[in-house]
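chain below, 469 aa
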Amino acid sequence: MQKRAGENNPSTITKTIEDHLSHQKNVFDDMSSFFNSEEATPDEVKPILRYLVKKTLNQMKTAKEDEGESKTFTLLDIGCGTGALFPYYLEAANELSIELSIVGLDLSTKMVDCANDNAIEIIAHSDNTSKHSIRCEAGDFVKTVMGVDYCEKTLTGFDNGVINESTENFREKFDAVVINACFGNFLNQDSVIMAAASSLKSGGLFVISHPLGHDFVDKLRKENPSTVPNALPTEAELEYLLQFQQFDKMDFIEKAKVVDDAKDDSTLYYASCQKVPHRILREVVRLRGNVDEGYGRGGKKLGFPTANLPASLFSNALANVPTGVYLGWAVIENSGNDSVKGRDVIHKAVVNVGYSPTFEGKENKEKIVEAHLIVEDGDIECDFYGETMRLALCGFLRPEKRFPSFPDLIAAITNDVANSKKFLDFTPYSDFKQDNFLQSLSEQWVGSSGGDSIASYEFASTSDFLEKS
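prediction:
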């Protein structure tokens, strides 16, 4: 993805975020005594909190039951404060007959001290003390999970941050991530959503909630923008925030009857979304070139028809393409006079861009494109080395990683193939099959971003393409 001059100066953004976090920490350290008092949660708010928590745990449980998993759940409570939601979590968990392990994370060390003290007392008085656990720690959510202050925009959505021993403790570990009553306090909401996706297991639930609703937060924002710099997103704004993230929106609720005998609906805010194993690219990547013999790891060894595009022809194109596994569409051009089965046909493809780090001693010296065509036996005749392939990348599945063994790699690719085969049948990915780049094969194509009639490439806005399709 191309950056404009002066856009997103990293040092400026980092300094701004550091100043904001320091301010937040000081404010809530000073307010910790108040938030640890009964006064902080008025009686009229308690049934709303109970409703929000029950809604969260019910959706979390349903999502995991769909995968046939156990009744043990892990939940990350962001901005946990002094633990205001803890008793409601355990109450709802007991009603649902599930075991709940809660990790609370808050910027304020004084809040966290109170939360840990309160957690001990709440667990001690729980009806099922052996089933549940709560622990809290101090830290910024984005920094804790991503290892960076903010996530820069990339072709695949947002930067994946730093993976190390510390961040791995939070990566893909939770069934639910909840941000209650503090989403507006975060300066960079894109990075917060990216951190939520990174900390959730596949199919996990992300919830943004507030017991007093959108207008209350917007009032706080106007009165004290240094502490509350953002409002809660409207439904349309939430969909915009999610468009390049690994989430599907589920519920968006701003009015609800929180108790059965209530005369009127209560004003609140509940937005939930589920982590999915794919996300659309900011730009569709179109590549055209001759298929290379590659590094001796083709279809025969991996068990999938594999087409490698030579790194020498696409090094400039790949410089700003993050390593990882992509999904898209491919065509092997029929360049001869004879009709050969599988040519001039649009095939589904799962594509690795990177260095293939699992093959120790055989890692690619350059970043290359390895396209695995998703076909049935007999769909393609003959090897297609030296033939011309058109490849359009439109979605992202996962970062590239080193697997402990070759069978583990095969299992991962098999899963990638299954996901690509499934999701390419649905919008927006299915729309890219109609791309003129793939359909108009009789026309000579030279990409606008670089190359020539032999090998070329281009990056084009996915939003613009989908608006026109």
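Residues 256 and 266 are 5 Å apart (CA to CA). Confidence is low (pLDDT under 50) at residues 1-7.
thats it, cya
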